Amino acid sequence: MTDKIHRLLDEAFAGVDTTAEVQDLKEEMRANLSVRVAELERTGLPADAAAQRAISELGDIRSIVDDTRAVTGSAPPWATQRVRPRPSYVVRTVVLATIATVPLAAIVFAAFGDAVPRPWPVVSVIVLAVIGGVIVGDALRQETTTNYPMPRRRSLGYGVATTLVLVAAGCGALAVRNEPLPWLIAGGLALAASIVAFTYLGATQTNRHKPWVVRLEAQHQEIGDRFTQDPAAAARFGLYTAAIWLIALAAFVVLGFTVGWAWSWLALLAGLVVMMITLARTLFAPGWSDPKPPEA
User: What is the DSSP letter of 13?
Assistant: First the structure.
């Protein structure tokens, strides 16, 4: 029956100029026809008759194609395929952001105000970081106009990486006051872990753009995505990044105990600069932007 639907649909589209929009319309009709044929068969209609009737219910194919072209030609795809945020997601984000103002105020007060009881700064940093990670992970799980929802495990990874960044920022704020050494060490470790996590997630990220976005990117693309087309380059960059941050972290500790913790953060800054240069050299290596296909 699937072959029957394919043949009848190909016959209906015979003579119609094939474009990306027409092909999308054809695939959408194919899916709808399969559902409609199944419904007709459940009523007792023979399979061939059900397929013929489902095709006839479509009406004039050329008229449908012309209408589709008129709509897509009069407005950009991001206007015709707009996805509005879910109300439940908006409510969750607003509620979490409102709650986050409480630990944020506690951190600011602990850093620049009077003394705060010891447990509260630590609790505030953890709560604020977790809320920020939840907001980011939840946002990536939502479908947007341009992107499909991110898989649960990957969105969780981005949420954890965001939590580590916020932990590092909170530790840096609390280091302004008493006992800066423990806060600087904790913040440095959290920052290094977050950079490694973000680097891994970025290097292994697959496409989640919708078809119209992919077509639009293809029309304007001048430099290819090397990590997608060259897995070996992505693996090399991951190893380089791990080595860079191991050295930077070791330098951070050494500088802290020798020169002083006020200067130890320069090791992390140097690690970030070296990583960005390595990323640029890996992505935009000379002669790679227009790669040749591998020989058979």
Answer: T
Reported confidence tier of residue 291, pLDDT bands at 50, 70, 90 = very low
**Structure tokens belonging to residue 114:** 């009077």
Answer whether residue 80 is part of any domain.
no
Q: Could you report the per-residue pLDDT of 26-83, keeping only the tens digit for each?
A: 777 887 888 778 877 888 888 888 888 877 877 777 777 766 655 555 455 555 667 7
- Cα 9 to Cα 26, 45, 176, 211, 231: the distances in Å are 8, 19, 70, 22, 39
Q: Over the chain, what is the mean pLDDT?
A: 79
Q: What are the helix and strand counts (H, E) for the chain?
A: 13, 0
Print the domain residue range for 50: 2-74
28: nearest Cα among 1, 68, 63: 68
Helix (H) or strand (E) holding 294: none
DSSP 176: T
pTM comes to 0.52
CA-to-CA distance for 48 and 5, rounded, in angstroms?
A: 9
Does residue 269 share a domain with residue 219?
yes
Instruction: Report how far residue 134's alpha carbon sits from residue 155's, in angstroms, rounded to the nearest whole number.
Output: 9
The pair of three-digit structure tokens given for residue 240, joined into one six-digit string: 């380089």
Q: What is the largest CA-CA distance in the chain?
A: 86
116 with 257, same domain?
yes
pLDDT tens, residue by residue, 83-142: 788 889 999 999 999 999 988 888 877 766 665 666 777 888 899 999 999 999 999 999
